[in-house]
Each structure stands twice: as structure tokens, then as C-alpha cells.
User: What shape does this take?
Amino acid sequence: MVRVIQALVMRELITRYGRKNIGFLWAFFEPAFFAFLVTIVWTFVRMHERSTFPITAFIYIGYSNGLLWRYTITQCFHAISANQGLLYHSIVKPVDLVISRWLLEFLSVTGGAIALGLLFGGFGYVPIPYDFSYLLLGWILMAWFGLAMGLIFAALSILSEVVEHFIQAFLYIFWILSGSLFAAEFLPPNVREYFLYLPTLHIAEIVRYGLLGPIMNYYYDISYPVFFNLIALSVGFFLLRIAERKIEVE
Amino acid sequence: MEKFVRLENVNKIFPIKKGVNYALRNINLTINYGDRIGILGLNGSGKSTLIRIISGATKPTTGKVIKRMKVSWPLAFQGGFQGSLTGLDNLKFICRIYGVDWKEKVSFVQDFAELGKYFYEPVKTYSSGMRARLAFALSIAIDFDCYLIDEIVAVGDQRFQHRCKVELFEKKKDRTFVIVSHSPHHIKDFCNRFFVLLEGHLLEFENFDQAWDFYSKL
Amino acid sequence: MKIDDLNGSLKKIFISFLKKNIYFFILVILPFFLSLIYFTLISTRVYVCESKIVVKTFGDSGSLSGISAFLKNLGLAEGTSSYGNVLVNYIQSRDVMLALDKGFKIKDYYSSKEWDLLKRFDLLHLDPSYENFLEFYRKFVVNTYIEPKYNIVILQTRAKDPDFAYALNQQILNLSENFINEMNKKVYSSALSYFENRLEESRTKVKSLSEKIAKFLIKTAVVAPEQQIGVLLQSTARLKEQLIAKELELSRLISLAPKNPKINDLEREISELKAEINKNLEKIAGSSTSIGPQAVELEMLKAELNLLMKELEANLSAYLQAKNQAMMQLLFVETVEAPIKPDAPVEPRILKSLFTIFILCFIIWALYWFITSAAREHAE
Assistant: This one.
């Protein structure tokens, strides 16, 4: 399975980014550029406020972290339909197709985030992480979440005809609510408890704490996203197993 | 270890506009290593579905598929090609997933497929003949226990076809073959077990003549 | 024989696996084991002593409400924790570091060989200056930050002995308290000196004018006995001062605590004072028996005295108000959580550190694999 995934990742990489100009380096540049733009826009929007809040670092880490699930879901949703022919190779399973896309997105976003972090850090906009272990923990949790969601959506792409029409809207709404771009502290307390049902908010809080330290109050509970991810991952594998019986290659 | 592929009570049901289509009904088949299976069937009898099930591309609706040998993809199948990738890229990919060192196979495939410098060009620039030749070459490059052949397709010129026959039916003649067709020649010459697929049912016959007899009366 | 064969083939498998994934071993397994050894065997155990302090003023009710609290929580309002910051800056200052070094010889303590190689100060003896140590002190020895919710300053001291950490923490708290007190004194006196000066000026002016009037009255033999007028005038001035102070106090009490029983006493005292002042004024007025040209001059002097008294009133109330405000601004340090001697080492956090290192190395290796494979693919 490992070598199948490795092979799939390389194939996907060259297919998507080709060999022209910087080739596979686009894999890092794309998410980094997107995150860069968003961060710069938010920084300028808030620059006229005289506060000491580190808006650049805040948006940078939240956005990069959020890409771990956003890009993954979009890619994994089409993982099977785009590569159906490969299933003729009995050694290639639908699960492999999904995981290889997730892996590619993970490496792409992580690499891009590191590069962007070094860039911003060099100019002093992003501090040295306050607590690396929380930063990494949050990163892993989000990647895990992305994998679980990727599996679920890949399964749904087969099991349902209508999901593909709703997925754009869903992603957009969920992205806004997910907590990548705002802090739990900004929410009024009575609303906050509902938002805390979203594991992505916990994960974003963990990651932000890891980078920025105790400059504000954080609301997270490590066990919740762990728990959620475990269940979601199991559901994903299960759904995909069911969906496998429905796959029809042309 | 015993090498075989076994289908147990395999059914394949497709939902269609007006109800369902029973593509395969209660198939029970054991393919042992070295068997050379010939399956005759009309269009729409479920031949392709059966091939897909054996290759693992599709899962049966009910029933089990037990694989204890390395099964190829349908020879000359091109669905696994990525158009924007070069012939070499596709070779690398195939070799990687089957755990074969691609460097060892490059010269053979290049030679066999006779693509020349197009080997390093994206597959989408190939003619259909070139694609078929590449697909063939890749199939032969990997050592499989069982080769699936869905409708022997005449590919390339006489010389190429001869080479294919040599590679497949002579150099690998002790391997397993599953040949699905509606033309009798290769099945008659080469197979040792004979089946007819009729409306999803798989019927075995003692010898080719009986099978052909039954088949021609359909 | 068979077991040897097994051993041999296992070894072969292991070596081939190692060869194929050499970078994995170098980038992930090796660092992991090195850190495992380091954290379990080598790393010096660190004890952390923590205390919590809050810096308040009298005027700080301690809890904000409404918009200010909301803005504060957003971290967008300015100067949200300026008092805390003052303290944090002080604790991290050179003065404290040097004071601690004087008392506890902390530079030597943190350079001692008992600390492991990674934690020791100035391991390679490159820069044993106090400047360099100041950085070390700020990063490792003390850790201060402000808990955003209630503006509490958290002070942590780290050492390899629990007693030492405790002693340092305690000492820093003492130094902080002294510092705040010193600051208060300076601020208090400098704020009031201006008003105090003006008040003294007024008093002197009133006094000299009163004397002038007394002399005048004696000279013109209008009144007798001479001393009493001067004394009466001065005592009247003083009584008026008292009256103003009490009236200010009364109005403050009424606005802050309208049901305070002191109010009644105050009101009684105020009316008593007023009565006595009037009595004095009558005595002064009554003692001028003759009318004539001196009377005009006398009236002019009296008018001037009146003006000066009004000025005195104004300066007195300004002084009293400034005093009040200065009192409100006084900072005081309150220990919310006293330091306690730590009983168990807090660092190194073995599991956390190992987890971090493993994941970090794994990601680095994954990226390394990705980039090298992709580069190879790219180059064909």
C-alpha cells in the first residue's frame, strides 16, 4: 500500500503541476501565495487600528492551518472519479486514491506554510512559536481531520448524486464558520458554546496558542477534536467501504 | 502456496431507469494457476463486467472474490493512462505500483512499443495505435500470474501482432489466461477450459466444439 | 543452525531496510533516540516556582463592565494592562537581575557544571558578561506574562533546586513591592508639590495681610487689645480652612455613601464651625468702633483680605482634590497567589518534548522525501 500511495502521489504531482517553469514547486507556491494574499489584505485592513494585536501572524497561521482541510476535501471529493481507470489495477484501491491526494495536499500546504512562515518571520511579522508542541499538535489534528473528511466526501461522491451540487456552498459556509479566521474570544459567550461544537475551532485555537502564546484567552479542549477525528475517520473508512461496491468504472 | 482466483456466488446488479439489470447471476468460478479460460458471450452478456470483477476494478454486489495470485489489468487497456504524462511516466507509475524497477523495463518497453522519441512525449499526443502498443507493452513488461484479455484487439501491423503472440502465448504460456471474446479463433487454439456467458449465467462446457455449438445457436 | 540462519537473514533484512530508508533513520529515528536519551538521562530537572500578583490602584474597582470590558477582551483597547506591564518590565530589568546576583550569585549558579550542556549559561565561555546573562535571565531564569482575563501578572522562577527557585521568587516579589512603593512616593509627592506650594503661598499671604491689618488697627488705636485681632484673624482663616475641608469631605461622602452615619456628625461639625467663624467675625467687626477716614482704608484692607481668603479657599480645595486623585493613582501590589516551594520538577516535559521532536522530524523527513522524489521526477 505504501508504494502504491507513493507512486500515486508522484503521478498526481506531475499531472497537476507538469514540468514547465517551476514544476512541482507550484505545490508549495500555490497555497503559500493564497495564504500570503489573504494575510496581507487583513493586515492592511487592520493597520489603521492602533492595537498591538498580531493580526498578520494570526491570519497567517489560521489560514494555512485551515487549508489542510479545505484543499483536501476539494481534492479528495474527485479523487476516485478522476482516476477511475486506475482501479483496473487490482493493487490500487479507492482508499489509496483518496489517501494519496490527502498526502499530496498535506505536504503541499505544510511546505508552503513553512516557507511563508520563514518569510514573514524574517520580516518580523510572525514570532518564533511560543510552544512548538501545541503548534504541531494542532497541525496534526487538522491534517487528521482533513483525512477523515476527505474519506467521507470521497465516499459521498460515489454514494450520492446530489452532494456535488452542494459541496461548494457547504465548503464556503463551513470555511467561514470554521474558526480559521477569528478567535473564540471574539465571540459573545452565549454563541461561543455553539461554535465550540466545531472541532476546527478547537484545532485553530490550539495552533494559534502554539504560535502566539498567552496574549489572549483561548478556548479549546484537546480531547474533543481527538475524539471527533477518531469517529470521523472510522466513519470515513466505513463509508468508503460501502461506496466501493457502488463504484462503476467505465 | 496455492495460486488461484475464486468467485463465490458473485452477483452484479446495476440499477437502471426501469428497474435493475442482472449483469451477473450467481457466478461460481475457480481459476487455477495455469488454466487457460475462454469465455464466449454476446454483446451485453456481461463479459466486460466479469472481467472487471476479476481484475478488481469493480466489486460484486453480493458474493466474494478471492484472489491468490497476481492478476493483470485487461490487456491493452488504456484507462489507466494519464494523458498529460509521458509514456515513460506511465511506465514508471505501472512499475512502481507493482514493485518493479522501472529502469530495468525501459529498454524492453521502448523496443516493444516502437514509439521512438514519442516515448518521452505526453500520451495525449499519441495516435490510438501508439497508445494501444504502449498499453500492450506495459502489460507484458510486468510478470503477472494471470492475464486478462478482453476482446483480442488487433493492434499494430503484422509484425507487431506476431511479437505480441510470441511474448504472450509462448514466453508466458505456463501462466493463467482468461480470454473473453465473441470470436472463436484464439479460444479454440489456446484455451483448455471453455465457458459461455449467457445473460449473466456462466456455463462451462467440456470442450470448445460443444461451447461453440451452444453459442452459435444463441 | 536454523537459528543462526534466521539471525543472519533478519540482519540482512534489517540492513537492506536501513539502506533503503537511510534518510528516514538519520532524520527521524536518530534524533528521536538522541532526544530520548537526553530527556530521560541527561537533562537537568528544572523546578518552577510560580506566584501570581496583581497591580491595582485604589480607583480600580477591579472589574470593568460593558464596552470597556469587551474591548479589553478583544485586546484592541489601548493600555489594557499598563500597570502589569510596568511590573513585568521591572522584573525583567537589569536592576533586578543585578540585585538578585548580589544576593544569590545567580550568574554563577546558572553557569555551574550541574546544569546539562544545553541548559547551562555560557557553555563555551564565549561571553560571560552581564549583558549576555541578562538575556539568559529574561529567557530562562524568570518567566513573566500577564494573564489576559484579570490582568494578573504571573511570575515564574526556574532553578535546579526547589529552594532556590522559591527564594528567588520571594525576593523578586519583595523587590517589586519596594519598587512600587518608591514609585508611589515619587509620583505622589511630585503631583502634590505644585498644589502644596500654592497653598503655602496663599497661607503666607493671608497671614502677612492679617498682620498688616492688625498693625493698622492698633496704630489707629481703633481696637484694643492689639494681639487679639491678629490672632482672631489667623484663627478665623484656619477655621475657614477646616470648614472647606469638611464641606468637601461631606460632599464626597454624600456621593459615595449617602447612608454613612458619619454624615450627620460632619454636618454637626460644619454648623459648629460656621457659628464659631461668625462669632469671630463679629468680634473683629465689633472691635472697630470709630468711623472716619481710616475706616475707608480699613474697608479696602478688609476687601483685600476677603479676596485672599477666597484664593486660599480655592487653593485649598484644589490641593485636597489633587491629594484625593493622587491617592487614587497610587499603585499597590497584591499577591493573589503566594509562591510555594515546588515539590516536583516540572521540566523537562519528556512526553511532550519527545512527541514534538518526533512529529517535527517526521514532517521534515516527509518533506525531504517529497522534494527529492519530486525533483527527480521533474528532471526525469
Notes: The longest strand of chain C covers residues 47-57. Strands of chain C lie at 47-57, 142-147, 152-159, 331-337. Chain C touches chain A at residues 73-78, 145, 147-149, 352-353, 355-356, 359-360, 363, 366-367, 370-371, 373-375, 377-378, 380 (CB under 8 Å). Chain C has twelve helices and four strands.
